[in-house]
């Protein structure tokens, strides 16, 4: 059985092979005898190379491993197993015995050393090194501290640093701490490009044409190919250089490292290894590795990774005696202790024990920045049928070419031609059937679309533009995407004596009296002073500014800074306190949905803990006698109006004098709090939101909201935005995990504002995308459903519209589940995720077309970055995607017809002669090249159609279009060829073979204008305008240039003189062909209503997963359940655990 390699950008299976000497000898002989053709074949198919040279064996014995991706592409890669020799190092005493080589007994290095040779087997996959673990017989990733380490073990094993000997061992095994992106040499890029099967086939074709004297056309193609290859190589070289320059400056940072034997010293960051102890002395530092903070605190800027330059506070890993791994102990919130590579340390705060300290967690490409760079170097292939169908298309044309080859042999043999002429002419017709420009044509529409998008949307993955043409599902974040970026403080509802008091609105002429509420608003935040300016989370800024303005006596607030306290300037003698010092912070995280601070009033001994966060979470930490009885009702009153509500709580801490508050246990400190009240924030819809959602709905593109906000608030915003139509029901789903003997349960409850609505539920169908019920749930319920009710998940997703309180891992899992609904079907469910959430880049990477609305420079995590700060970019991208997709299909159809038109004309002329060199040159360069360049210049239609363009090349309408037009071409050219022979003035001219600049015959004079103008006819017929592109006449400037050049080229051609009446016959044949072709294409093949009738007549139903579920649910009278409760089945054999969710926190 194959093993799996973890840590690559996709799941990979690994197989072991051993090289056989006699096999290698035979293969070498094959390389020589085939003149390198076998070597080229093995270059294209590395698995064949391994199978031919090696025999299968266990991974433990293998010297070559073959890796195969587990996705639908099943791509193979071969890697050589190498050895790391540790015997050259001055190893510590006892390393040759059974003792551990490194102090950390759990380290994979100890289990990978072959003793007594002191060697380690390793492979390198996508810049990550794997070493062979003899204990489990698997390759394990190296370059990271083991996740099994507990909080206590990280402090005690690595808190004092490593020994010098252990550093050397780890440096040799893990490799340098550098994200090295090679600037690939031009010759390497050139060879990789020209060894593409397309260019190899083109080289074969050009060799054949040059041997026959087709010098002008061959030179033209060579020049075009050189330009194409040169531009591609230049672009790849530029990308490689930019990426190299982006990461190179961080590879040689000076850092201070402490070792057990030599104390602290400065060294280059490339020598860092996992387990090293870093000193953070307060200087600004761009982190060269991932490190876990063990002492002190830091403020960092993670804009490099997230696209949001909001200062983030990092706290030390607690020193606790817990047997749980440190990540598990910290749950989703473990990131608050981690300093990620590529982020900038702005400020540090020392403790009494000295400067802030951090233990190196991961180095090189194992780091967060390294992972992002690897995602650029090794992007996940896009599963889009267009590119796979194009390959099948070329295979089909090759088969036609083979038939042409057989036909040519028969014709030339019957004419008694020499064998050399038979072979060359047969190969000539074979190459004529396969236009070499088809692969390039697929990108033509994309290139122009990217150029048009550049003014509004920046794209780092151009091939995804075509995929945007198939989008029919859009996932939106709420805050900053559908609603305004900033929150305005609307009011506060204080609580006193377990009762809500009168609301205090902002701004107000009545001052808010000093008390714990003011203390919470003034201190419970993560704001910092940078460059004499208060910076931080926008919500914290609004809260802080509001409390400053409303206090009748301005309170000086001391901010939490590393070495000094900067009080707020305005003070009066009437201030109730001199200031508040923020001594310790438990930062906010989307997983915990809360934050807390420990503060102290200046001049007083008492400590205070203030908490703010999601009302449901904060209330659970409060003494229930302090929470108002009508808490949920009051909360719902405001969330149902679309307000964002934050709860505040307080607790007086009796810690005594000179206590180190940094050692406080969060769980102990955040207990028994007093509920202070609700902070109500107003978050208005952007004015562009409703029109865009309406436009998407009219185009039958479904909109889904995925947010971290309150469920009721999210439902209200969805209603206001138009995602949930007036009169539609909202069914709230609440799922609970098993408790004791009670199994997991899922409850379906009708939202209260929908209970008066008695409309019968429906399921959206292919013709009617609207439905009058929508599911809404929070992240916790989604988690339970994926774990215990996975069989219900597809049914729910068909009509789920609102997902609230979603964590980053849940967001990316949801996007993947939406994508699964299309497995094996026709069409596609595509996801666009415009997100201002700094943690949302996981979902952006997972989606087919992720859009970032960040104002920062384009994030490497997002394929698209919009310069439009609202969701107007979504329909714009879909419009351009549809236009690019239709243009790509049109150009492919045209090139196919052009090749077959030329194929038919050449095949007919083989009975007497062939086209002349200049005639081929005009057809191939002046007509075809210009048409390909101008067809795709037609812009996108401004209005989105209520259906998507076809997403498959191999589909009945497209195949019928090509087949029928080929039939029209054969009929027209055959008629011309036969009729010209019947004319009284016809004289058979001497047949010619080989390459001629000009070939004069009546057949040639008839067939060349028929075939050339037929190419222009099909170009016009295939250049369809509405509903996805503007009408063809809007592209008149470019088309007129092409038409003039074509007319001029015809004037310079030499033809045999024919009577005027025959020329009229030729024009009539072309006119009839145009009318028939246009009618067939526009009235029959492009008639959507006709195809729907045909599908209904034959009972055809879509095979896509979401359509199947829709039909199934439509016939289910018990769906959707309302005011019902279901329990997990006792048998758990078929329970599915979603791997994306399970590993979202790792």
Brief summary of the model shown:
This protein is of the alpha+beta class and 1146 residues long.
Could you explain how this protein is built, in words?
With 1146 residues, the protein is of the alpha+beta class. It is built from 36 helices and 40 strands. Strands 22, 23, 24, 27, 28, 29, 30, 31 and 32 form a 9-stranded mixed β-sheet that branches. A hairpin with a 4-residue loop joins strand 8 (128-133) and strand 9 (138-141). Helix 7 packs across helix 9 (215-248), helix 13 (385-414) runs parallel beside helix 28 (873-909) and helix 31 runs parallel beside helix 33. The chain is globular, with a radius of gyration of 35 Å.
Radius of gyration: 35 Å
Query: Helix- and strand-based class?
Result: alpha+beta
The biggest beta sheet is recorded as:
9 strands, mixed
Helix content: 40-55%
- What's the average pLDDT? 77
Organism: Bubo bubo
GO biological process, one term: intracellular calcium ion homeostasis
Membrane topology: Multi-pass membrane protein
Family: Belongs to the cation transport ATPase (P-type) (TC 3.A.3) family. Type V subfamily.
Keywords summarizing the entry:
1146 residues; alpha+beta; 9-stranded mixed beta sheet; 7-stranded mixed beta sheet; 36 helices; 40% helix; 18% strand; globular; disordered C terminus
Secondary structure topology:
Layout: E1 3-5, E2 12-19, H1 21-33, H2 37-44, H3 46-53, E3 54-57, E4 64-69, E5 76-80, E6 82-85, H4 108-112, E7 119-125, E8 128-133, E9 138-141, H5 151-158, H6 164-174, H7 186-194, H8 197-211, H9 215-248, E10 254-259, E11 263-268, E12 277-280, E13 285-286, E14 290-295, E15 297-301, H10 303-306, E16 311-314, H11 326-330, E17 338-339, E18 344-349, E19 356-362, H12 368-377, H13 385-414, H14 419-432, H15 438-453, E20 457-459, H16 464-468, E21 473-476, E22 488-496, E23 499-500, E24 504-505, H17 516-523, E25 528-530, E26 533-535, H18 538-550, E27 557-558, E28 580-589, E29 594-601, E30 607-613, H19 615-620, H20 631-639, E31 644-653, H21 666-669, E32 674-682, H22 689-698, E33 702-706, H23 711-721, E34 729-736, E35 745-750, E36 773-778, H24 779-788, H25 793-797, E37 800-804, H26 808-820, H27 841-846, E38 851-852, E39 864-866, H28 873-909, H29 917-935, H30 956-982, H31 1002-1022, H32 1036-1051, H33 1060-1085, H34 1088-1098, H35 1105-1114, E40 1124-1127, H36 1139-1142
Parallel strand pairs: 21-33, 27-28, 33-37, 34-36, 36-37, 38-39
Antiparallel strand pairs: 1-2, 2-3, 2-4, 4-5, 6-7, 7-8, 8-9, 10-11, 10-12, 12-19, 13-18, 14-17, 14-19, 15-16, 15-18, 20-39, 22-23, 22-24, 22-32, 25-26, 28-29, 29-30, 30-31, 31-32, 34-35, 35-40
